[in-house]
Amino acid sequence: xxxxxxxxAESIVPAELAGRTAVVFDVLRATSTIVTAIAHGCRxxxxxxxxxxAQEVAARLAGENTPALLAGERxxxxxxxxxxxxxxxxxxxxxxxxxxxxxxxxxGSRALNATIEGARTVVVGSLLNARAVAQKACRLGRxxxxxxxxxxxxxxxxxTLAAGMVVLEMVEMMNPGCLCSNHHPSSxxxxxxxxxxxxxxxxxxxxxxxxxxxxHHGRKLFSMGLTxxxxxxxxxxxxxVVPVVKVVKKENGYPIIEKC
Amino acid sequence: xxxxxxxxAESIVPAELAGRTAVVFDVLRATSTIVTAIAHGCRxxxxxxxxxxAQEVAARLAGENTPALLAGERxxxxxxxxxxxxxxxxxxxxxxxxxxxxxxxxxGSRALNATIEGARTVVVGSLLNARAVAQKACRLGRxxxxxxxxxxxxxxxxxTLAAGMVVLEMVEMMNPGCLCSNHHPSSxxxxxxxxxxxxxxxxxxxxxxxxxxxxHHGRKLFSMGLTxxxxxxxxxxxxxVVPVVKVVKKENGYPIIEKC
Lengths: 260, 260
Description:
Two copies of one chain form a homodimer.
Chain A: E1 2-6, E2 21-25, H1 30-39, E3 44-47, H2 51-63, E4 68-74, E5 77-78, H3 93-96, E6 100-104, H4 108-116, E7 121-125, H5 130-140, E8 144-148, H6 157-174, E9 189-190, H7 192-204, H8 208-213, H9 216-223, H10 227-233, E10 243-247, E11 255-259
Parallel strand pairs in A: 1-8, 1-9, 2-7, 2-8, 3-6, 4-6
Antiparallel strand pairs in A: 4-5, 10-11
Helix pairs in contact in A: 5-6, 6-7
């Protein structure tokens, strides 16, 4: 099983994802928010790239009597006129239970939507559900591409860390013991970037929160007073939920992320 | 001091290097070869991107009565008609002493030549001289961009490891003790990629050779029987030499790498 890794939304080439399992990470905060919402009973999440489209999808859902929450951020801030933001802490079971979340974010929505165009199965990953995602990827048995959203076209430490946690869990599931030896894991074919991500995971596994102090975007959110969000997003393997994208086949259909 | 990192030759934007110290890494094998040749008394190295230009430069040097060696590789193999290849082991003091090396390689030449277009000072880095390069970068005191050549447009583990060794040495020189604490090094502003490279260095510092077993290009060279080259290139801080690019100012001038 080959495990590849992409560092930014911009580096996604949908055709190269054909037949593969793709896992998308935007740890601060889009995919942590999606995982939290789904774990708290959200019926599904629709991710859209621009704000006008988000409003249109939410209005359409309302017209179909589907309870929907319109949510999003730009540059870490709420969008004017949008009732909900991109903090996972907003999405308690009381707020999100039984509803569809329509979410537009700076990097995560772009990464998710580009990935959906190419991959066979698209899974939403974060530190919150890294082990469950690794179990799902192992069960599917196909080659895997870990897709980090990055931040404005640049590498982000926290996304690659979460991808590395999935690599680490997969290595421990499929090649227990190989991490102590000098040998490359034999049944897993790790691209060089997957090896680098694995070492990030080993470095931060005992304190993932520390990686946010070392990350540019983590420090930005800290300076905006979002410490509680950072603490939440750093919590490793809190949930066993694996959100998976389901493509709704109907006129004007949109992909919706649901509980696996 | 800001320390940034580029993962491939393709991601170099010369204008973004303005005023900075750039260090170029193509560990397997171009920059390890250049460092070895300079350490062994080579007068200077000219890197060119295409083979015809390499032949032209070598002929011009011969016409000027400058003893020159024509060398290069494509896909790890010697170039037909070129008397020398890209193995650092070829460049003993007897072979290279007092001569100019004209070198064309798959990735390293492209990375070096694109970097030369933009940066204020261009230094050649490898595992062989990581500490000396870090000392030089600290002395210059300017912002630093670590430029990994990568392999055919892709991330390469060994180049980023060597860049990480330079980050690690700089952190230990400028912020001794900070690696044991939870704090981000204060006088160094590390981009997220530099932090990730630092963790690679910490993971492999006791056995850099092991990284080549985990790297795609390292395994390719191993399968070609180049074990002695791999062992040589993995040797950490063997040399104190810091090759620096000097731009020759004359008609049809070409940049030449010399001992600092």
